[in-house]
From TrEMBL:
Enzyme Commission designation: 1.1.1.37
Family annotation (CDD domains): MDH_cytoplasmic_cytosolic (cd01336)
Family per similarity comment: Belongs to the LDH/MDH superfamily. MDH type 2 family.
InterPro entries membership: L-lactate/malate_DH, Lactate/malate_DH_C, Lactate/malate_DH_N, Lactate_DH/Glyco_Ohase_4_C, Malate_DH_AS, Malate_DH_NAD-dep_euk, Malate_DH_type2, NAD(P)-bd_dom_sf
Functional description taken from the UniProt entry: Catalyzes the reduction of aromatic alpha-keto acids in the presence of NADH. Plays essential roles in the malate-aspartate shuttle and the tricarboxylic acid cycle, important in mitochondrial NADH supply for oxidative phosphorylation. Catalyzes the reduction of 2-oxoglutarate to 2-hydroxyglutarate, leading to elevated reactive oxygen species (ROS).
Stated name of the protein: Malate dehydrogenase
Catalyzed reactions per annotation: (S)-malate + NAD(+) = oxaloacetate + NADH + H(+); (S)-2-hydroxyglutarate + NAD(+) = 2-oxoglutarate + NADH + H(+); (2R)-2-hydroxy-3-(4-hydroxyphenyl)propanoate + NAD(+) = 3-(4-hydroxyphenyl)pyruvate + NADH + H(+)
Keywords (A to Z) from UniProt: NAD, Oxidoreductase, Tricarboxylic acid cycle
Domain Lactate/malate dehydrogenase C-terminal: 111-285
Source species, domain of life: Eukaryota
Domain named Lactate/malate dehydrogenase N-terminal: residues: 4-107
Length: 289
């Protein structure tokens, strides 16, 4: 792949980016992972035709086992690790398990793309821009069991903030088509483009890293996959689960105490169950790999 990397290098140079000082291309872990402030892990094994979910997990446990160990060995302990490669939640958990010297709270996985998709669907429906929509939540796994929740989301209409349910007055769409559209958006993009999301994923990574660095605006939260470590929602500890978080001083905090109705609770548990199963499989592979 070093030849391909040369092409990536040329494109980066050709962007003439004002803040880009230097690029190193390498296939050596000791160079790639040395003293990082941020590690964005995008390399993973994609699902191929006829591949079982377990086979995919196994292949990726192998990759993220190495990357976690390399982070542990070569990187700054303050590094912020953002896992993008799928299955992103469990890959992130695997990497964290392999890097015990780096705090668990430094690991996150990307559910910001799902978050942005949810914002965009609401904005499209209401004829506003995505910027007018805030506090949507993606709960759980970056998979089709994720739960996009707008019970606490607000939209700005004629200068006033209104709850999304109140603004839309279309509960059946919000509890049905809206949820499935966001859950299956990745597959819909692949079907149309014959390639997975690229531009929107890149934008989501930028949003995610920017918020880690500069914090979330007052009164706003965003969705991020993090290792659960005590929360008011009954999500078991030590799952890599997407929660609403606020970020300050490069540290996130789960937004606890939001009221959860039965409809939401069932969906949050379902995606937690899938993550618990993925975790169990990954840990089995990790022990034997
Ligand atoms: N979390 C999200 O929201 C989100 C969004 C978009 C894409 N993704 C995922 O991000 C990943 C990258 O997407 P893409 O479209 O660039 O996919 P891609 O298949 O084009 O790129 C994956 C890359 O990983 C590399 N790779 C394979 N094995 C590796 C290893 N052992 N070590 C390092 N690199 C390895 C491959 O060579 C390839 O270049 C995929 O897993 C995709 O599903 C996640």
């Amino acid at each position: 792949m070093m030849g391909v990397l040369d092409g990536v290098l040329m494109e980066l140079q050709d962007c003439a980016l004002p803040l880009l000082k230097d690029v190193t291309t390498t296939d050596k872990e000791e160079i790639a992972f040395k003293d990082l402030d941020v590690a964005i892990l995008v390399g993973s094994m994609p699902r191929r035709d006829g591949m079982e979910r377990k086979d995919l997990l196994k292949a990726n446990v192998k990759i993220f086992k190495c990357q976690g160990a390399a982070l542990d060995k070569y990187t700054k302990k303050s590094v912020k690790v953002i896992v993008v490669g799928n299955p992103t939640n469990t890959n992130c958990l695997t990497a964290s398990k392999m890097a015990p010297s780096i705090p668990k709270k430094n690991f996150s996985c990307l559910t910001r793309l799902d978050h942005n998709r949810a914002k965009a669907q609401i904005a499209l429906k209401l004829g506003v821009t995505s910027d007018d929509v805030k506090n949507v939540i993606i709960w759980g796994n970056h998979s089709s069991t994720q739960y996009p929740d707008v019970n606490h989301a607000k939209v700005k209409l004629q200068g006033k903030e209104v709850g999304v349910y109140e603004a839309l007055k279309d509960d059946s769409w919000l509890k049905g088509e809206f949820i499935t559209t966001v859950q299956q958006r990745g597959a819909a993009v692949i079907k149309a483009r014959k390639l997975s999301s690229a531009m929107s994923a890149t934008k989501a990574i930028c949003d995610h890293v920017r918020d880690i660095w500069f914090g979330t605006p007052e009164g706003e939260f965003v969705s991020t996959g993090i290792i659960s470590d005590g929360n008011s929602y009954g999500i078991p500890d030590d799952l890599l689960y997407s929660f609403p978080v606020t970020i300050k001083d490069k540290t996130w905090k789960v937004v606890d105490g939001l009221p959860i109705n039965d409809f939401s609770s069932e969906k949050m548990d379902l995606t937690a169950k899938e993550l618990a199963e993925e975790k169990e499989t990954a840990l089995e592979f990790l022990a034997s790999a």
